[in-house]
Write a structure and sequence with these properties.
The chain has 95 residues and is α+β, with helices and mostly antiparallel strands. It contains four helices and six strands; from the N terminus they run αββααββαββ.
């Protein structure tokens, strides 16, 4: 019986063609007013980072394009999510 492959290894199989600009925009001013910072906890790729001042920083490299951040954002519009430009984004390599 083989050992199941873990999430980090599965994510490592994906390939990413990155555009110069992110397909997700975060308004840092509004993020400072957010109490829950749900995007930080909800992102399956862990691409949102909480800053010491309470702000949130997003790095689009490695984005799985699931849209979870747009759904959990309680400010509705703090996170602007659109699909990456044609030819860019994630290519799933497993499953």
């Amino acid at each position: 019986m083989s050992t199941p492959i873990g999430l980090p290894a599965l994510l490592g199989l994906n390939s990413f063609d990155l555009a110069e600009t992110s397909h997700i925009e975060v308004d840092p001013t509004l993020c400072l007013t957010c109490v829950t910072k749900a995007c930080v906890a909800a992102c399956p790729a862990q691409l949102y980072r909480l800053e010491p001042d309470g702000g949130v920083v997003f790095d689009h490299a490695g984005c799985l394009e699931c849209g979870t951040c747009a759904v959990v954002c309680e400010h509705g519009g703090v996170v602007s999510w659109r699909p990456p430009a044609a030819g860019f984004g994630v290519s799933y390599r497993y499953g």
